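User: Predict the structure for this protein chain, please.
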Amino acid sequence: MRKRNLILWFNALAILSLLAGPIFSWGMRVAFAADAWEIVSSPNGGPGNNYLWSVAAQKPTSVVAVGSTETNGIFKTTIQRWDGTNWSVISSPSVGGHAELFGVATVPGHNPNTTVYWAVGYQKASSRSEDPVGHIVPAGAKTLIERSTDYGLTWEVVPSVDPNPNPTTGTNTLTAVSGVSANEAWAVGYYQNNNGNPRQTLIEHWYNGPNGLQWYIVPSPNPGTGNNFLNAVDEVNADHVWAVGYYDGSKTRTIILRWDGTQWLQQPSPDPFAINYLFGVECTDATHCWAVGAGTDTLILQTLTLRYDGTSWSYVSSPNQGAGHNALNAVWPISSNYVWSVGQYKPSTTFYLTLGERWNGASWSIVDTPNQNNFFSNALYGVAVVPGTSPCSGGDSWAVGYYVDANTRLAQTLIERYTITPSCRP
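Assistant: Here is the predicted structure, written as C-alpha cells:
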C-alpha cells in the first residue's frame, strides 16, 4: 500500500560492501519469543540471488512481499504471500528478459476489506549486466506494473507508460506505488532519455482520465541539474499525495513533492547533512507523516528522519549503530507515538547487519532485529503493518529484505515479524 517500500535506491557509496566476505566473526543479535522481531522462514524463487524489496499487508492472512529472483543469470520478478501460516511463492506474470519488482501496495491502504494489490518495477528484454543491489536499473528498461484483485493470489500485467518509449542507452523504472481506491493510485520512479542526459523524476497516475481508466504520466519537478530520483510515494487522499527522493546538483539534496489535487509541487525539505537521501515516506493522515533515508558529512552515512506536522517538514535526530554506514530504507507509522523504520548498518569494514528503530512519540530508539547469519550481510528494505492491528492487538508488523548465505555467498530472502509485547498480554 502506501509504501513504502522502500524502497531504497542505495547510493554506491553505501553498497560497495553488501556482498563482501567476512574479515572476522560478528556476534549475531538474537530475537526472543516476545517483544521482539523474529525471523520467519521464507522461500527462494530461484537457485541464484533472491531479494525482497517491499512488503504490503491487507489482513492477517494476506501479506505480500515482492522483489527479484535469479536463475542462470536472468533476474525475474518474485512475489511471495503470507496466508496466515506460511510464506509461499506466487506465480508472477512472465514478461520476458529481465524483470524486477521494487514496490508493492494495497489499495485502499490500511483497509482490512481491500482485495487489490499493485506492484511496480521494470522489465528489460535484453541481457542484464548490473547487480540489482541499490536498484541501479540498466539501460533499455521499461516500466512494469502488475496487479492482483484477489488478495494477492493471482497477478496480471497492467499497461504502463514510458516517457522514453524506445530506450536504448536510456531507461524507465518505477520504484514505489500507493493508492486509495480502485480508481485512484500513484506510482513514482525515474527515467533517462537516450541522449545521456541526467535521470528525471517519473510519476504516473491511475485514474479515469481522457482515455478511460488507465495509467497516465503526470508532469513532476526536477530541481537538480544532475540526476533526480523518486524512491517512495504515499497517497493520503486524492488531494494529498507525497513523493520523496533525492537530486544531484552542487550537492545531493532531498526531494519532497506534494500533489495538491491539481499539480505536483516541490516542498521545502531539510538537508541536515552535506549529502542527503530519502528512501521512504508514510503517513497516518494529512497532518502526520514521516520520511526516512540517510545522510553524511564525512562519507560515513548516518540515519536521516524527517517529520511532517501538517504545516512543514522538520529534521528529527535518530540513532546509529556501529562505526560504519547506517541507513533507514522504509518507515511505517501505526500512530503518532508508534512508528517503525528499518534498514541496515555497518559494524565493520565488510558487511551489513539489519537495523530497526522505533519512534515512541518523543524520540527514536534502536530496536533489536535479528540477522540470519553473523558472517555476511543482512539488510531490511521494506516494512508494513496489517491494518487494524498494533503491537498490543496482534503485533502484525512485517519487515523484508535479504541476507547473504555464508556457504553459497548468494543473496537469500529475509522476512521478519514483530510479536506481541508482554505488557499487552492479559
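Residues 12-15 form the longest helix (4 residues).
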